[in-house]
Structures are given as C-alpha cells and as structure tokens.
Design a protein that fits this description.
Layout lengths: L26 H17 L4 H19 L8 H17 L3 E3 L21 E6 L5 E7 L2 E8 L9 H18 L5 E12 L3 H10 L6 H13 L5 E12 L11 H24 L3 E2 L2 H12 L4 H9 L14 E4 L4 E3 L2 E10 L11 H4 L7 E10 L2 H18 L7 H18 L5 E11 L5 H15 L2 E4 L4 H7 L15 H6 L1
Antiparallel strand pairs: 1-8, 2-3, 3-4, 4-6, 4-7, 5-6, 5-11, 8-9, 9-10, 10-12, 10-13, 11-12
Helix pairs in contact: 1-2, 4-7, 11-12
Length: 495
C-alpha cells in the first residue's frame, strides 16, 4: 500500500501462486521432463532410434502441460474438464428434479450439487441473537447480513479508513482458531419495494389526512419501479476439528463456541464500513437461497415477510428443477451464467476498482459478485512468503529474465517484509453470476459482464462445464471449493 498527501491511496502487491519449474512447466511437469531426459540418455547407449522415439513420446506428453490459454489453463486441464463434463451428461448428473414428483427424499426441494448434504442448525450468540449454523462436510458456516451504504457522498479519508479496518479484519482471520474461509457477496436485484412499504406503513397514523395517505400510497407504488436493491452478505466458515487429527466437534459445541465470537466479528465489520452487521437466521438464509434459484419468488417472499414470515425451511430452499449446460445454468424460472477470476488486476489499483463490476446493470436482472478468502496461519504464512521468494529468485536467475518475473520478485520481497512485520497472508478468488429471466437475454448479460469487468481490471473466465458448481459456490453459505476437489491441493499447486 502506498500513499501521499496529494495522491489517492493505491493497493496491490498480490501475486498468483506459481509452482517452481522450468519455463511454463510446473513441478510435476519438470519432474516428468527431467526423468524422461535421463531415460533418453540411457536409451542412447542401446539405440539412437529408440532414444529418438522416446523423446518424441516425451514431447507429446509434455505438450498438454506446456501449452496454456490466456487464462493460464493447460491443454490437459481443459481436456480433463471436457471429459468429466461428457461423463456427467451421460450419467444425467447435469439434471436435477425435486419436489413431490422429483427424486429428492420426502418430496422436498433440497439444494443440488455440492450443497445437497448441508444441514442448518439454529443457535444464539452472546448477544442473544439467533443465527443459522450451516453444516457441510465437517465445516460450519455463519452468514451475516450487512447494511453497507456504499461510498457515495463519502469523503475519501473515510473510505481509506474503512479499507484499513477491512484489511485489519481480514488479517485477524489468520488468528481466528479453526477458521477455514470467509466470503463477501454483493448482490444487486430489482427492488420489490417491501422495505419502503413497511417503513411507510409503520409511520402513517390513523389520523392522517386522506390526501397524505393517497400521496404516500402513490410513493410506495411508483418509487421502487426501476430501482435496484443492493444486498451485502459476509460468511465465515470454521472447521469442526480444532486441529488436524482431532475429533470433530458436534453442532452444539460449535454453536456455543461460535456464539461467543460473533459479536467481535460483527463489530469489526461495522468498523470496516459494512454498517449494521448481524447474523442471519435459518429462515432468512433459506429465503435468500430460494430467491437466488427462483427470482420470481422474491415479491411473494417480501410480502410474506411483511405479514409475519414465509415459512421457508432449508429443505425447501432449493430449486424444483435445474439443468446445467456447458456454458449456462437453468434453475426454475431463470437462467444464469457464472464466471471465475483467472487474473487479478495488475499493478496498483484504487479502492474503487470494483465499483463498476458491483454496480447494477439494465441487461442483468440479478447479479452476484463474491470475493472468497482462505487465510493462512502465521506459521504457514512465514513459510509461504519465503518459498515465494526462492521461486521468484530462481525465475530471474537467468541472463535475460522477463520483466514480469522481475516484478514478481519485487512483490515477493515486499510481501516477505510485510509478513515479518505482522501482516497476514490470504488466498483470494472472485466469482460472478448474472441471472436473467429468459434464455434470449443470456448473450446480452454476458456482454454486460465483459463491459463491467474491463474497468475493474479483472480477467474473468466463463466456468464452462461447472456452471452449477460456480452458482452454488457464489452463494454465501460456506462452500469451500478446494475442499470438494477430487485432486489433492498439493498436486493442483504443483501442476
């Protein structure tokens, strides 16, 4: 972070984790190449033709590991994704049916895909506030609803203060016991007018003049038209095991422990500009997920909330029907496309870099943008920055290092200095989902995301073959994607 009295503060110094290796090869590819060359040298002792044939085979094996597209994905990764998609379509895994005539148990509408095994418990924190505890594969998540007002008509000094507190909140996650991940989701959608109607109804008195009542009714009916509602959610995910190899804690134990931590977390979010942050109840989380899968239910749920509650439970929060295609996802009454960040903004950026991507757009009915964080413990952070320094120095060790490698070395050196002074290390990613009411509007929505992503300086990749997974991961319900991968993390990082 750099600043001066006459210039705006800038932020940066993030870098994509890279595996040590020769050229574009990662660690696994380098090991295969070195082993293959040794075998080729040995074969030359017997026959040059056999050695040349082996070298040709080795080259064919290494080509899928070397050739990458503009998103950094190798031919092997793309081919593996295509084969997995065809296998899933052949088995019918891309089609989901629930409800009374579906395949879900007891005729419910449970969530599909990665969230199918999730269970929601209810508890109370130290302030006696009810909160939902989402259990999924040994993880427990809590969702906060935030009343962020945004940066409009706010002094830059106040914005810088919010960013500083937000950085402190993220750095504190590294010291949070058993915390696995955190997620921030900003959702924009058409305003149903329910909040305005509830506010007006609560303020109008029986003795008010008829003209005043008529004016207020017209305001409630006309003002929400064309306006957008911006919702901000923050979720934190904890591991049920207090340490590796230990016994997993029960939902009751996790509820008691997390209940004592929530007040501190919500207070920190308030200092970071999130406004009033409060834990969401099980009904509120179920309603949020239900609206995401079926946007036409939003007005009905808003009306039911004004009348006492919708009664939606977690077992009925999912879609009644969903079908995934290679490049889009249909769920109940809507179609969606999801993207994932393949490259963070290069260089230094201002605090308003994501404003365009988070803003509403007329070609998108509902849009969700999530930042996913995975903090490292202080011990892991020290090893990571030192390893990054060694790898960066290795890449610039040649006679003619690339300019990008030199910049990455400078970033690695600065990260090591900041970590030594107490800064935290996190991995972060970004997911974006655009939802429209008809399939004919999908091309316009995709073009709108491309337009919005350009000022944000992020490179987005359409999640081909993983649309349903990206959609549910973009919901703030505590899904940690690396924990659901069939390939171990150590192997993924070495590719």
């Amino acid at each position: 972070m750099a600043s001066s009295e006459d210039a705006d503060r800038t932020y940066g110094n993030w870098r994509r984790p890279r595996s040590p290796g020769v050229g574009n090869l990662g660690l696994i590819g380098t090991v295969i190449m070195m082993g293959g060359l040794i075998v080729a040298v040995v074969l030359t002792l017997f026959s040059i033709l056999i050695a040349l044939g082996w070298a040709l085979v080795l080259g064919l094996v290494l080509i899928p590991l070397v050739v990458k597209d503009r998103h950094g994905r190798t031919l092997m990764q793309r081919g593996t994704a295509r084969l997995a998609w065809r296998r899933g379509v052949a088995s019918g895994a891309n089609i989901y049916r629930s409800g009374p005539l579906g395949l879900a148990a007891h005729g419910t509408c449970k969530l599909p895909g990665l969230a199918a095994a999730s269970v929601v418990h209810e508890a109370r924190d130290s302030y006696n506030r009810p909160f939902a505890l989402i259990q999924l594969r040994g993880h427990y998540s809590v969702v906060f609803s935030c009343g962020a007002d945004g940066a409009a008509l706010v002094d830059q000094d106040q914005i810088d203060t919010w960013v500083a507190y937000w950085g402190g909140w993220l750095a504190g996650l590294s010291n949070e016991p058993s915390l696995v991940a955190a997620q921030v989701t900003v959702e924009t959608a058409p305003d149903t007018g329910s909040k305005l109607a509830a506010e007006v109804d609560g303020q109008v008195k029986d003795s008010a003049p008829p003209l005043t009542r008529q004016v207020l009714r017209e305001v409630v009916e006309t003002y929400p038209a064309g306006s957008a509602q911006v919702s901000v959610y923050v979720s934190v995910t904890y591991n049920a095991a207090p340490r590796p190899g230990a016994k997993r804690r029960s939902p009751e134990e996790m509820a008691r422990e997390l209940g004592t931590r929530l007040p501190g977390l919500t207070a920190g979010l308030g200092m970071a500009g999130a406004g009033e942050a409060r834990p969401m109840t099980a009904r509120e989380v179920a309603e949020m997920v239900r609206v995401a899968y079926d946007p036409t239910a939003a007005p009905l749920i808003a009306q039911a909330q004004r009348e006492g509650g919708s009664g939606i439970t977690w077992e009925d929060a999912g879609p009644t029907a969903a079908q995934e295609s290679w490049g889009d996802y249909r769920h109940d009454s809507a179609w969606s496309i999801s993207w994932g960040m393949s490259e963070a903004p290069r260089g230094e950026v201002l605090s308003s870099v994501l404003t365009s991507l988070l803003s509403p757009h007329r070609d998108i009915d509902r849009k969700r943008v999530s930042l996913l964080y995975r903090p490292h413990s202080p011990a892991e952070a020290a090893g990571i920055v030192e390893r990054d320094r060694r790898e960066a120095r290795f890449r610039v060790g040649g006679n003619k290092p690339q300019a990008r490698d030199v910049v990455q070395l400078q970033a690695a050196e600065q990260a090591a200095r900041e970590e030594a002074k107490g800064a935290g290390i996190l991995r972060f990613a970004l997911l974006a989902t655009a939802t429209v009411a008809s399939r004919d509007r999908l091309p316009a929505a995709a073009a709108a995301i491309d337009v919005l992503a350009a000022p944000a300086r992020v490179r987005l990749r359409r999640m081909h073959g993983s649309q349903s997974t990206a959609f549910v991961a973009n919901l703030p319900i505590g899904i940690v994607l690396p924990e659901h991968s069939l390939i171990p993390g150590t192997i993924r990082d070495a590719m």
